[in-house]
Amino acid sequence: MQSDRSFRTDLIQRDRATSRTKADVASWTRWEAGSGEPFEIHYDQAVSFCVVEGRARIAFSDGTKLDIEKDDFVTISPDIKGVWTVLEPITNLYRYHDAGAAVT
Questions:
Q1: For the chain, which ranges sit under pLDDT 50?
Q2: pLDDT tens track for 72-87
Q3: Mind spelling out the 3-state secondary structure of the chain?
Q4: Closest Cα to residue 75, out of 63, 66, 83, 84?
């Protein structure tokens, strides 16, 4: 796992979720996945999510590998593909961003 939780590229960012962030995302859509076979995803819209519990690794098509764990807040820009490998059963709260909206 990456020891520094702050991570940024042109398409991906990860930071430690603050208590304010956790309160803001509490009503977002819940997604859960158990450990199993890796699966592909295409992010055709920008998305942000907060990891409630668990761990995973996302290997993006541009070669970037991102480890995520409890309390990480991640934003992914559109038009990137990745392969998720869930290392421990994971729960995220997520929200897709409207086209043209600022991604924070």
A1: 1-3, 102
A2: 999 999 999 999 999 9
A3: CCCCCCEECCCEEEEECCHHHHHHHCCCEEEEECCCCCEEEEECCCEEEEEEEEEEEEEECCCCEEEEECCEEEEECCCEEEEEEEEEEEEEEEEECCCCCCCC
A4: 66
Question: Could you tell me if residue 91 is inside a domain?
Answer: yes
Query: Of 82, 78, 76, 89, which is closest to residue 58 (Cα–Cα)?
Result: 82
2 belongs to a structural domain: no
- Domain holding 15, by residue range, is 8-96
Distances from the Cα of 55 to the Cαs of 3, 82, 100, 103, in angstroms?
14, 16, 30, 24
Tell me if 3 is assigned to some domain.
no
Q: Could you tell me which residues come within 8 angstroms of residue 59 by beta carbon, excluding any fewer than 6 positions away?
A: 65, 82, 83, 85
Query: Phi and psi (nearest 5°) for 82?
Result: -155, 165
Tell whether 1 is covered by a domain. Answer: no
